[in-house]
Amino acid sequence: MAVSQAIPITRHPYADGSYKKMLIDGKWVDAASGKKFETHNPATGELLATVAEGDAEDINRAVAAARRAFEARGAR
Predict the structure, then answer these.
(1) CA–CA separation, 40 and 50 (whole Å)
(2) Edge to edge, what strands does the sheet with 47-52 contain?
(3) Alpha-carbon distance 30 to 17, whole Å?
(4) How far is the CA of 71 from the CAs of 21, 65, 74, in angstroms?
(5) What is the pLDDT of residue 10?
(6) CB neighbours of 41 closer than 8 A, spacing ≥ 6?
(7) Among candidates 36, 41, 34, 37, which has minimal Cα distance to 15?
(8) Rounded to a whole number, what is the distance in angstroms from the first to the last CA of the chain?
């Protein structure tokens, strides 16, 4: 016969409701547009984090940084 056991709900350490930036070129930065969005736990509605909302300009910044890093590594 199976015995049911309660499993404690734990929260991810980064799900603390704080603001999360994007990591681009080794730095934590805001979205170029300044936009943010909230993400919530779908089961409880609890705010998990507010996150920088990246767009095409942020993608271009990240790709340019990655290209620079790749080219610098190849120069060694």
Answers:
(1) 9
(2) 19-20, 47-52, 36-40
(3) 16
(4) 26, 10, 5
(5) 73
(6) 15, 48
(7) 41
(8) 64
More confident residue, 63 or 76: 63
Q: For residues 14 and 49, is the Cβ–Cβ distance under 8 A?
A: yes
Full 3-state SS string of 6-48: CCCCCCCCCCCCCEECEEECCEEECCCCCCEEEEECCCCCCEE
Q: Hey, what are 52's tokens?
A: 């920088």
Residue 8: its pLDDT value, please? Answer: 72
Q: The tokens of 67 are what?
A: 């290209």
Confidence category of residue 16, pLDDT binned at 50, 70, 90: confident
Which amino acid does the sequence have at 61?
R
